[in-house]
Amino acid sequence: MKRALVTGGSGGIGAEIARRLARDGLKVIVHANCHPEQAEATVSAIVAEGGIAEAVVFDVCDAAQSRKELERLLEGGPVQVLVNNAGIHDDAPLAGMRPEQWHRVVDVALDGFYNVTQPLLLPMLGTRWGRIISMSSVAGVTGNRGQVNYAAAKAGLHGATRSLAREVASRGVTVNAVAPGIIASSMTMRLFTSAQIDALVPMKRAGTAEEVAHLVSFLASDGAGYISGQVIGINGGMA
Predict the structure, then answer these.
(1) What's the whole-model pTM score?
(2) Of 126, 128, 133, 132, whose CA–CA distance to 74 is shortest?
(3) In sequence order, what are the beta bridge partners of 5?
(4) Residue 143: how many CB atoms within 10 A of its CB?
(5) Is 57 helix (H, G, I), strand (E, B) or coil?
(6) Domain count of the fold of the chain
(7) How far apart are CA 146 and CA 235, in angstroms?
(8) Per residue in 109-131, pLDDT tens?
(9) In which domain, by residue range, is 226 found?
(10) Which CATH number characterizes residue 177's domain?
(11) Is 150 a catalytic residue?
């Protein structure tokens, strides 16, 4: 049975991705940092559906802590599907953005990508089959006012994705990024009115976490074996 690690899998899109991968027959490792109880709730939901899952807790920005936990996980065998979903945003116009707002957002996305992906890479390559999927955002493609830090972090993931895809292509490992637009959540409903969504999204609705999870599920499948180095938008036609 292949194993999948979903970082930031404790809520929202990450939890839905974890549940979907479990339904696909993978043993899922659900990562959390600040909300371990939510990761455990996702694990319980997966187990209740007949899947296999466990939770892991560490800060992806902490290289030593991340490596220690990942080495422990690797004692059980390679992780062949990695979904880099951990991410935060802390919005402000750049002119008023505090240094810690810039660094924390960029660190979670980019240091987190390195700190998690790098330790798992050689064991994955040894199996000659792997899937690395990083969650980006339409902001990383088009930019967005008040999100210079977030857009920069996500655009950095695009470069990392395309470069790593070239490094590992001959070993049966694909590397892609998924860039959602406006996805329905309690936060989204606070940030956008229905009228604003109608104006921004050609499809006139927000997407769902389930739709994002379906895309990730496909990219993690055998059927997506010739797709690599891509940034795939799921945004209702926004870009």
Answers:
(1) 0.96
(2) 126
(3) 29, 82
(4) 14
(5) strand
(6) 1
(7) 19
(8) 999 999 999 999 999 999 999 99
(9) 3-182+210-233
(10) 3.40.50.720
(11) yes
Count of positions (residues) in the chain: 239
Asked, for residue 201, whether it belongs to a domain, the answer is no
Let me know if residue 19 belongs to a domain. Answer: yes
Collapse the DSSP code of 162 into the 3-class scheme (helix H, G, I; strand E, B; otherwise coil) and give the result.
Answer: helix
- 69-113 pLDDT, tens digit per residue, is 999 999 999 999 999 999 999 999 999 999 999 999 999 999 999
Of 150, 153, 154, 235, the active-site residue reads 150
* 190 falls within a domain: no
Q: Which helix (H) or strand (E) holds 84?
A: strand 81-84
Residue found by looking up tokens 């899947």 in the block? 51
Amino acid at 163: S
What is the full DSSP assignment across 176-216? EEEEE-SB-SHHHHHH--HHHHHHH-TTSS-B-HHHHHHHH
Tokens representing residue 174 in the block: 């694909």
